[in-house]
Amino acid sequence: MIAQVSGNVAALGPTSAVVETGGVGLLALCSPGTLAALRVGQRTTLFTSLVVREDSLTLFGFATVDEREFFELLTTATGVGPKLAQAALAVLSPNELRTAIATENLVTLCRVPGIGRKGAQRIVLELKDKINTVGLVAELGAPTLPAQAVWRHQVAQGLVGLGWTLRDAEAACDDVEPMLVEQPDLGVPALMRAALLSLARP
């Protein structure tokens, strides 16, 4: 496993970077965001994941450990290969992906080219219980309360993604907001569950 490479950037391409380390130029496939921060001749460190196939060894490079670990998590989902996982991280940040998976926001996941509704449902089903248990920096599970506008937006969008109307979603947010008075450290997942219970009540 090649976990990271450090050295001077020898070359940049539309989808890759060559980093010279120990006299060897290692080519890593990178997202546009990662490539945009690199400059030929400048020293850099890429956090990498080596994908082994019968006929190839492909190195994927990321700007942060978090991106690399989420990339590796995504590739454990059925139907998600390395290129699709990299595309997901090019469109959404790791925390945006965590939020979408935790709140079952299929609309957000479907923003990734190559992920349809069924694929998004499969990702949620297979990864929802893993996103906070694989050593990732899982902010959704942190005790810090998001700003009001942020948590309301995330919960409401999650409910809309599950098929509720925006009006119902906003009403559910109103129902759960008093919980924050007693438990100000509640995070988005707990608020989302409470909102779903509110909507389930007759």
TrEMBL record:
It comes from the Bacteria. Residues 72-91, 107-126 form the Helix-hairpin-helix DNA-binding motif class domain. The keyword Transferase does not apply. Has three domains with a flexible linker between the domains II and III and assumes an 'L' shape. Domain III is highly mobile and contacts RuvB. One of its GO terms (molecular function) is four-way junction helicase activity. Gene3D superfamilies: 5' to 3' exonuclease, C-terminal subdomain, DNA helicase RuvA subunit, C-terminal domain, Nucleic acid-binding proteins. One of its GO terms (cellular component) is cytoplasm. This is Holliday junction branch migration complex subunit RuvA. Keywords: ATP-binding, Cytoplasm, DNA damage, DNA recombination, DNA repair, DNA-binding, Helicase, Hydrolase, Nucleotide-binding. Residues 145-202 are annotated as: Domain III. GO terms for biological process: DNA recombination; DNA repair. It comes from Microlunatus antarcticus. Belongs to the RuvA family. InterPro entries: DNA_helicase_Holl-junc_RuvA_I (IPR013849), Hlx-hairpin-Hlx_DNA-bd_motif (IPR003583), NA-bd_OB-fold (IPR012340), RuvA (IPR000085), RuvA_2-like (IPR010994), RuvA_C_sf (IPR036267). The RuvA-RuvB-RuvC complex processes Holliday junction (HJ) DNA during genetic recombination and DNA repair, while the RuvA-RuvB complex plays an important role in the rescue of blocked DNA replication forks via replication fork reversal (RFR). RuvA specifically binds to HJ cruciform DNA, conferring on it an open structure. The RuvB hexamer acts as an ATP-dependent pump, pulling dsDNA into and through the RuvAB complex. HJ branch migration allows RuvC to scan DNA until it finds its consensus sequence, where it cleaves and resolves the cruciform DNA. SMART domains: HhH1 (SM00278). Pfam families: HHH_5 (PF14520), RuvA_N (PF01330). It is found in: Cytoplasm. Homotetramer. Forms an RuvA(8)-RuvB(12)-Holliday junction (HJ) complex. HJ DNA is sandwiched between 2 RuvA tetramers; dsDNA enters through RuvA and exits via RuvB. An RuvB hexamer assembles on each DNA strand where it exits the tetramer. Each RuvB hexamer is contacted by two RuvA subunits (via domain III) on 2 adjacent RuvB subunits; this complex drives branch migration. In the full resolvosome a probable DNA-RuvA(4)-RuvB(12)-RuvC(2) complex forms which resolves the HJ. The keyword Hydrolase applies.
